[in-house]
Write a structure and sequence with these properties.
Elements lengths: L2 H7 L5 H13 L8 H14 L8 E9 L15 H10 L4 H9 L2 E8 L10 E2 L17 H20 L2 E9 L4 H12 L3 H4 L8 H18 L6 H8 L2 H15 L4 E3 L2 H13 L7 E3 L6 H10 L15 H19 L3 H4 L8
Parallel strand pairs: 1-2, 1-4, 2-3, 4-5, 5-6
Helix pairs in contact: 1-11, 2-3, 3-14, 5-14, 6-10, 6-11, 7-9, 7-12, 7-13, 10-12, 11-12, 12-13
Length: 351
């Protein structure tokens, strides 16, 4: 599915299903609204799926991997060769996302969308657009055509999972240096100072943080990304895995499937998706708020409240895995709790 078709398929949430879900929630053996976020999630899932009693079945977390030319500027504490090394770790089941996905019963699908090394290994989904982005301090990170191709690769990966019966998707990523383009995207779309959105990523020191801030400012100054044109911003200061995840989100929304957003990089991808198709925000569930300062600003810009506060900043989809667990709990509440009438329990009297 190409980008324009995906955009055209994203519909408003099903208001009738949400109304019926609310009526059922209010009939359950509990005080009104007493399960808080769980009730809100159940109602939102009803609107997304069109089912007043939504259920979660097959679950998949899509991990997009890509490299960044801006790493040449020393914005990361880790060398770029860690990206392919971690891809192998994901495929061997040894990473944090593998452990947490297994814990919640989700599959992990790893996509090479722009790793700056040739990768040929069983289980890897190869959708490589190019060998990493270009250095955004010297010009655009990629062309607009490459950005659109990466988005459409993400749409295709999401659609394949959905066609195979997946009922909920989570977003994850791997790419040394990717908090740098995520910070740039957030600063541009939010009209926020770079200092407010930049964190230490994988562990740079104070001098490294100042350098990172200056590098991002330089990239924005040189490229002059247009905040009214999402593809322009993505191409000039974004990343291939960010583009791919934006596609995953749009693909999920186009197919009325909920998508659980991970941390800062996934949040930057969600921000891109929201600028391409504003209605897609209704299909997003924010799993947690990262320690990275920019992530809080991303969630504010999206108008999403995180389900969890865990002081996490690993990425990979780890927060999304835990978020999926909470979403599944919400579905079990609306489906498995007894109603006042069914249980023979007296309801509260009107006061």
């Amino acid at each position: 599915m190409n980008l324009e078709v995906a955009k055209s398929k994203i519909k408003p949430l099903d208001g009738e299903a949400m109304e019926l879900a609310q009526k059922r929630l209010d009939s359950l053996t509990k005080p009104l609204g007493s399960l808080g976020v769980l009730e809100g999630l159940a109602k939102k899932l009803a609107g997304i799926t069109g089912n007043p009693q939504p259920e979660i079945g097959k679950k998949t977390i899509i991990v997009m991997a890509g490299d960044h030319g801006v790493v040449e500027e020393g914005v990361s504490a880790f060398p770029q060769e860690v990206t392919p090394q971690m891809v192998y770790n994901f495929l061997n089941g040894g990473a944090g996302i593998n452990v947490l996905a297994k814990h919640v019963g989700a599959d992990v699908k790893v996509v090479d969308i722009g790793v700056a090394a040739p990768l040929e290994v069983s289980g890897l989904i190869s959708r490589k657009i190019k060998m990493g982005t270009d250095n955004m301090t010297e010009g655009p990170a990629m062309s607009k055509d490459e950005a659109v191709a990466a988005i459409e690769a993400g749409i295709d990966v999401a659609e394949k999972e959905i066609n195979e019966g997946v009922t909920i998707l989570g977003t994850g990523e791997m790419g040394i240096g990717n908090t740098t383009p995520s910070s740039a995207i957030t600063a541009v779309f939010g009209d926020i100072s770079v200092e407010e959105v930049v964190g230490k990523g994988t562990g740079i020191d104070d001098d490294g943080l100042n350098q990172k801030i200056n590098i991002i400012k330089k990239a924005i100054q040189i490229n002059r990304p247009d905040p009214t044109d999402a593809i322009d911003v993505l191409a000039k200061v974004g990343g291939l895995e960010i583009a791919g995840l934006a596609g995953v989100i749009l693909g999920a929304a186009a197919n009325q499937i909920p998508v659980v957003i991970d941390g800062f990089i996934s949040g930057a991808a969600a921000l891109v998706a929201s600028k391409i198709a504003p209605e897609s925000v209704n299909y997003m569930i924010a799993s947690h708020v990262s320690v990275e300062p920019g992530h809080k600003r991303v969630l504010e810009l999206l108008g999403l409240k995180p389900v969890l506060f865990m002081d996490m900043r690993l990425g990979e989809g780890t927060g999304a895995a835990l978020g999926i667990n909470i979403v599944e709990a919400a579905c079990k509440i609306i489906n498995e709790m007894a109603t006042f009438e069914g249980a023979g329990v007296s309801e509260a009297e009107d006061k």
